[in-house]
């Protein structure tokens, strides 16, 4: 896994006088994913795969990145409580 440890942060954003301010609402620390769960969660559609593609002005396309996403309410299925 690319990120063995990370933080998920929830915040509200507000623009005041052209500057962006954040009010942090929640932070969640996750680490040591249960790698054996990954394939199962992928099969169940809980983890999805997105291909980020960019179309050039010439009309051709280039794959920019491939990312995995997990439903936010399912993090505990992949990461044990920290």
What labels would you give this structure?
82 residues, two-stranded antiparallel ribbon, 2 helices, 4 strands
Topology:
Elements: E1 5-16, E2 19-31, H1 38-43, E3 47-55, E4 61-70, H2 75-78
Antiparallel strand pairs: 1-2, 3-4
Describe the structure.
It is a single chain. This protein has a two-stranded antiparallel ribbon. The chain has a two-stranded antiparallel sheet with strand order 3-4. The two termini are 17 Å apart. The chain has one domain (5-78). The radius of gyration is 17 Å and the shape is flat. Helix content is 12%, strand content 54%. It has 82 residues and is mainly beta. Strand 1 and strand 2 form a beta hairpin.
Question: TL;DR of this structure?
Answer:
The chain is mainly beta and 82 residues long.
N-to-C SSE string, H for helix and E for strand: EEHEEH
Radius of gyration: 17 Å
The number of E-state strands comes to 4
Approximate shape: flat
Mean pLDDT value: 89
Helices and strands: which structural class?
mainly beta
- Strand portion, in percent? over 45%
Number of helices: 2
Outline the biggest β-sheet.
2 strands, antiparallel
Number of domains as seen in the coordinates = 1
DSSP helix fraction: 10-25%
């Amino acid at each position: 896994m690319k990120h063995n440890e990370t933080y998920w942060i929830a915040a509200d954003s507000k623009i005041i006088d052209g500057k962006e301010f954040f009010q942090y609402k929640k932070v969640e620390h996750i680490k040591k994913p249960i790698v054996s769960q990954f394939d199962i969660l992928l099969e169940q559609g809980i983890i999805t795969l997105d291909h980020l593609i960019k179309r050039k002005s010439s009309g051709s396309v280039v794959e920019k990145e491939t990312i995995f996403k997990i439903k936010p309410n399912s993090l505990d299925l992949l990461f044990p409580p920290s």
